[in-house]
Amino acid sequence: MTGFLAATEATWPAAARHKAGAFIVPEGKGGGQRVSAATATGPWTEDDIDAAERMQASLGQRPLFLIRQGEDALDAALAARGYRVKDPVNVYDCAIAALTAEPANPMAGFVVWPPLAIMRDLWAEGGIGPERIAVMERAGTPKTAILGRVSDRAAGVAFVAISGETAMLHALHIAPGLRRQGSAVKIMRTAAHWAQDHGAKRFSVLVTEANTAANALYASLAMEIVGQYHYRSK
Question: What b/e string do you get for 140-157 counting C-beta neighbours within 10 Å, with b at 16 or more?
């Protein structure tokens, strides 16, 4: 799980990271939960939780913590403070060769950076606005965006970046009227081929348990759940 967290921080980075007691509080600037949730760096006390809450308040962020597997004591402490479980997440991973065994369709997926206006429009349609685009732009690792096409129409978009030997896919969105036509799979394969060409050997993605369609997609591509986490919010 620490590997997934390091890869996430590198490929989907916060604007800044602040120390607050035994916690790191990322400064998200509206970029979503992954760049705003506090994480424990070691043994903690109730005073450390207080420090993290004060830091989040100073940044204008709501109280939010990321709970990894094995952090049961922290989970219970936050529950006692009135924090509720939010968005359990599955961490999927596979050898990149599992996705590149089939060639990418050059007419169905295009590697583009920086994103075109149509790609920004597609992301906006999926609730991925300028603040999340800013997260992509901050990533200092090898990165690109993928534009998917179906029947000569822009059908979907995704962002992929590499940390070490792991590529992580983020912000996959398919236009509602063009779903169930294979565009998501083609975007995944295009992203994997690009990542393999840039030295990646593993391919990972994060998805909420509630997103049944995405979970089914990743499972169909022989990706396996290698970890889980959830948030606690007040």
Answer: eebbbbbbbbbeeebbbb
Domain match, 156 and 201 both: yes
Listed in sequence order, the residues at least 6 apart from 186 whose beta carbon sits closer than 8 Å to its beta carbon are 104, 105, 108, 109, 148
Query: Taking the alpha carbons of 53, 54, 57, 58 in that order, is the dihedral positive or negative?
Result: negative
Domain limits at 212?
93-227
Q: Per-residue b/e over 193-227, b at no fewer than 16 CB within 10 Å?
A: bbbbeeebebbbbbbbeeeeebbebbeebebeeeb
The rounded percent of the chain whose pLDDT value lies above 70 is 99
Same domain membership, residue 112 and residue 208: yes
Assign 1 a pLDDT band (cuts: 50, 70, 90): very low
Is the whole model's pTM more than 0.90, yes or no?
Answer: yes
Q: Are strands 202-208 and 166-174 parallel, antiparallel or unpaired?
A: parallel
**Which residues, listed in sequence order, are joined to residue 225 by a DSSP beta bridge?**
92
How many structural domains compose the chain? 2
> pLDDT by residue (tens digit) across 161-190?
999 999 999 999 999 999 999 999 999 999
User: Which of 90, 125, 160 lies at the terminal end of a domain, its last residue?
Assistant: 90
**CATH number of the domain residue 160 falls in:** 3.40.630.30
pLDDT average, residue stretch 21-46: 98
- Among 40, 60, 90, the domain-final residue is 90
Residues 200 and 112 reside in one and the same domain: yes
